[in-house]
Design brief:
heterodimer; A: mainly beta; B: 119 residues; 0% helix
Chain lengths: 116, 119
Amino acid sequence: GAGVSQSPRYKVAKRGQDVALRCDPISGHVSLFWYQQALGQGPEFLTYFQNEAQLDKSGLPSDRFFAERPEGSVSTLKIQRTQQEDSAVYLCASSPYVWGQGQPQHFGDGTRLSIL
Amino acid sequence: AQTVTQSQPEMSVQEAETVTLSCTYDTSESDYYLFWYKQPPSRQMILVIRQEAYKQQNATENRFSVNFQKAAKSFSLKISDSQLGDAAMYFCAYRSARYSGGGADGLTFGKGTHLIIQP
């Protein structure tokens, strides 16, 4: 596609439910990033993929958060047993290069997750 | 760990005027990249301008320019001839040039400045 696509755009879940957020990066992009943006804050890094390899998951806040990119293209961020503090916008970004070259990331529109 | 500070939660400027958004950062590294991103209500982060720390020349992109002061660890964004479409949240971001492969490879963002354009 022309840009990074994320779905759903909005997700409402009850506390304790599992959710899955999808990111479809720009075709051919090697690097993929997930960020969490709480209300009124800047995005915070969650995890990074280079193709299908998850090279950095240091930003995942707990073991309830899990991300995968099995074929090196589409990625899914899964949150198990959701809690109210998980409410945020989840942004996905991709880059055509192996990270470390300072190239800018291309962001999607994000998924706004609300936990009731 | 690196930190990015944007001390202005909100700024307002008249259309066609010039406005400067401030950003400071803290790092012990000598080589890194700095970015300004714009986030309109649609939520998509749009790159405004990028600066490489080893370059002394300030980056410019049409009406957008930066004042990069490496010693002071300051990276302000100047928007000239402000337009209604410039209204958005603006985020300053930092990225190390060191490729760790296993460390925190993402961007470090500030909390943002909400820019209001008065017609």
